[in-house]
Amino acid sequence: MPLVAHSALPSFQRLKEEGGLVIAPDAALHQDIREMHIGLLNMMPDAALAATERQFFRLVGESNQIAQFYVHPFTLPGLPRGAEGQRYVEQYYESFDDLTQKGLDALIITGANVTQPNLSAEPFWQPLIEVIDWAYANVTSTLCSCLATHAVMEFRYGQKRRPMGDKRWGVYAHRVVERRHPLVCDVNTRFDVPHSRYNDVSRAQFEAAGVRILVESAEAGVHLAVSEDLFRLVFFQGHPEYDTISLLKEFKREIVRYFSGARADYPPFPENYFCLQTQAILREYQELTVAAKAARAPLPALPEDILIPRVDNTWHDTAEAVIDNWIGKVYQITNQDRRKPFMPTVHPDDPLGMRG
Predict the structure, then answer these.
(1) Nearest CA-CA partner of 223 in 112, 106, 103, 315
(2) What is the pTM for the complete model shown?
(3) How many whole angstroms from its chain centre is CA 239?
(4) Catalytic positions, written as ranges
């Protein structure tokens, strides 16, 4: 069903050019289709702000639910922005205060870059708590991605994430471990998910919090889990929203950091992402880069035109299916009372309608 381009946000035009179903507000007025309003709290830094928008907009817009999707991006005070990033936010993003007045059916919260060893020391910590507390009381379901999952697990459940030492970085095989839950209904029971993080909330910590685990990986740990009421909070530790080349772009940024001296070692390959032939090409490029750095020569250009066609996407279809299930359940719950479409109406004894 379509995304409604209800603002001048450039991502709408970009998605339309990609072939996505994006319609203008005047066209939406002529369709007798239920509106769904989904907030996107985008906490990513400037360089990834628009790309993260498109990734989540794309997944929402690919849902099969009979609805018109209004996605409302906003961000938090305290997140560092450059002049261009700040102008972008001021021009295209909505305010949290306005959205609390309008109401939302659902909320997605992205990850964020952190600068402090403790999340509670981050400048966005208290504003994020306020958003999540409001959403828990007023929004049918909130989907937390990566850093947002770690923050909620700490301040709501007292389960603090733990450093892993090395970065968990790559594409990992996962398995559905609780197949009855509607979020994984008709989803492949085995599928891949990208991860990119230095910290982890373990299975034991999720279980201690009473959070139900739906999907996990022998290598990467828990990916998908839900709160004790089975739906109000949805947790991702991985990044199923990633584009095919997201990890390639991240690898390129790490190479630039190495070349500039921001990191001491040349970055390793993301695991299970590059095929053997691509790795061979990249090892040759590594030799050129190391030699150029030693000679104080310019950084050689990464041969992206050769690399990109060799990178596979083994996760997007399942990510699409999970988001479709999530939106479908939000649609079902909010449609229980069309007079109050943006307020949660979860029955405490049967929040997902699993009894029939």
Answers:
(1) 315
(2) 0.90
(3) 6
(4) 146, 239, 241
